[in-house]
Structures are given as structure tokens and as C-alpha cells.
Amino acid sequence: MSDAVLRLEDISIVLDGRVLIPPLTEQILPGTVLTLMGASGSGKSTLLSFLGGTLTGPFHTTGRIWVGSREVTAVAAERRRIGTLFQDDLLFPHLTVGENLAFGLARTVRGRRARAARIAAVLTQAGLEGFAPRDPATLSGGQRARVALLRLLLAEPQVLLLDEPFNKLDTALRAEFRRFVFEHAAAAALPVLLVTHDTADAEAGAGTVLVLRTDAMGSAFIARTGAERSASAVSVPGLGSVVQGGGQ
Questions:
Q1: Angle at 48 between CA 150 and CA 198, to 5 degrees
Q2: How far apart (Å, rounded) are the C-alpha atoms in residues 108 and 119?
Q3: pLDDT tens-digit map of 88-111
Q4: pLDDT band at 213 (very low <50, low <70, confident <90, very high)
Q5: What is the CA radius of gyration of the chain?
Q6: Distance between terminal CA atoms of the chain?
Q7: What's the rounded Cα separation, in Å, for the pair 160 and 188?
Q8: How far apart are CA 100 and CA 92, in angstroms?
Q9: Pair 217, 184: CB distance under 8 Å
Q10: Under 8 Å CB-to-CB from 6, ≥6 apart: which residues?
Q11: Which of 141, 194, 139, 136 is nearest to 171 (CA)?
Q12: Please, are residues 195 and 37 in contact by the beta-carbon 8 Å criterion?
């Protein structure tokens, strides 16, 4: 279980002179969800790539990233303990379900029997008992999505980033998988940063919502809603009243 707080200090991202992410300072407590919304191409996924340590290309980035007491801004992706769940499940097609999960299983679980038992236990808890020898190609979309989350959680991240992971599921499966993800994240006390363009995802996150917007001059700004409502709220289509501002 993680007890780390994800802190973003004055994070900004610029591409070819265009500000994608204006200065952003936020903290996400264990077991809570912060949602970032915005149009396609607005920079949402770019921010997650920066936080996860996988951003490449001609981006200019500033600011500091903290996971608990560790600053991870310059730390290699594999050492940050930040996990990302994507739209695609990214299961390895040449491995069984159990082998996919074993790939993500933390090295702290040692011994073949102990590792097999851990995998069997999480599959049972997820309603997938006996699925370890299955070929991922035989699973439904919802089952594959659950396995992808389980693999990520078995790596014992301290932070969970969600890059529109519900986007490719149909309406019924979206609601079910959202509950599955948020319940598991809460149980693991993970701070969660969700990016989406779907207000239903934001509402299910039950936390503060930030919206990437562009003003009449083409300058990026962040609108805010959630617990921090105030008289300075402005209207954002589909979200009601939000507050202009960069962070806390």
C-alpha cells in the first residue's frame, strides 16, 4: 500500500513556443483522484508522459515532480514507481494471462510458488479465478482491461496515472471498469491523476477537475472545479462552473 503524495511544483510544458501546460502546482493525496480534461491535442497525455519519465521530443519542460519525499523529476522512468494505464491494454500476446501478470509482479515476491500464489490470488479477487493459463486473445475487452490493471498494480507503484483507459470500452463496460479501477486505487491508497475528455469519468473520480482551455488570444490556462468552488467561477461547457487558476 502506498502512502505517498504526488506533488507537482510549477510544472509547465512548451512545444515550439506554444504553451501546452501552463504553470501547474498541485498535490494529490493517497486514495484521491485529480482529473485533467481538455480537447484532443491539448497536452493532457504529454503531461502524463512527463510525469512518468517517458516524454521525448522537442518539448521544453520546467518544474519539479515529487513522489512522497522523493523528487523524481530527473529519475529514470523505471525507478519512479509511477504506473500508467493506457487506452490499450498492452498485454503481451505471446504470454499467458499468468505470465503477463508475472512480468509486472514486484521482485519483492520471491520464489515460484509464492509468485504463482500471488497471481492466483489477485485473479480470484478480480473475478478471474483460473484465468492464469488463458491466452489473452480469448479474453473479452473488459477482462483484458482488468488484467492490464492487475499487472500494473502487481508492480507496486506509488502513483497511478490514467491515460483515458476507459475510452475504448462500451458504455456498460466503462462504468464497470471505472469502479474496478477506482476501488483498487483507493484500496492501495494511490494518488491518481486521470486524463479524459469524458465528464462521466471525471464525475466517477469524485475529486477536483482541472480543464485545459485556450483564451481568445490563444493562451493556455487551467480552469478548475470540484471542492474549490468560488464566486470567480466561469462556465465550461459540459462541466458547469469552474474556477480560473493554476493550482493551490
A1: 80
A2: 14
A3: 999 999 999 999 999 998 888 888
A4: confident
A5: 19
A6: 26
A7: 10
A8: 6
A9: no
A10: 27, 28, 51, 65, 66, 67, 159, 191, 193
A11: 141
A12: yes
In DSSP terms, 26 is beta-bridged to 8
Exposure of 185 by Cβ count < 10 A (0-12 exposed, 13-18 middle, 19+ buried)? Answer: buried
CA–CA separation, 222 and 21 (whole Å):
8
How many whole angstroms separate alpha carbon 42 and alpha carbon 214?
Answer: 9
Query: Hey, what's the cell of 18?
Result: 506554444
Instruction: Let me know the angle formed at the C-alpha of 163 by 133 and 215, rounded to the nearest 5 degrees.
Output: 170
Average pLDDT over residues 152-175: 92
Q: Phi, psi (5° rounding) for residue 69?
A: -90, 0
Distances (CA, A) of 169 to 133, 165, 177, 189, 234: 24, 9, 9, 25, 32
Distance between CA atoms of residues 46 and 52, nearest Å: 10
CB 195 within 8 A of CB 188: no
